[in-house]
Amino acid sequence: MGTEIERKFLLASDAWRSSVERSISMVQVYLAYTPHSQVRLRRTGDKAYLTVKGAKTGISRAEIETEVPPSFADEILEAGLYALNPVVKTRHLVPVAGHVFEIDEYAEANAGLVVAELELPAEDTPHPRPDWLGDQISDDPRYANLALAESPFTTWR
Known about the structure:
Residues 2-150 form the CYTH domain. By secondary structure, the chain is mostly beta strands. It is built from two helices and nine strands, in the order E-E-E-E-E-H-E-E-E-E-H.
């Protein structure tokens, strides 16, 4: 079983844009969720993934992911067989000092939200703090993708 250890940040500026190495469009939906776990389906490019995540402890949680046929994901998306609003975003990969920040620029119901994520090997792993990185929001549950599917960013205002 894998473990996801992830820090999340708001952005202080758009200066990161000049360092984008690659951008990936994605749609993700939640097929099921409880206080202890969530089942997510993600469609991106010519690939699709089914992911089961456990509840967070600090910034860590269990994560099990497998690639599934894109046609499987497409059928679920087209039939609307998911529990909450789809989360639509473009993920920009930005390398910084041996780390890769995943900057998610949300669209549709979450338009206007831009969040940087950084996966780490351990919770106490030191990481770079580029000038464009803003406040850490790892502990703010509103910014979790499941929360954004339940209560989209555009409804916060």
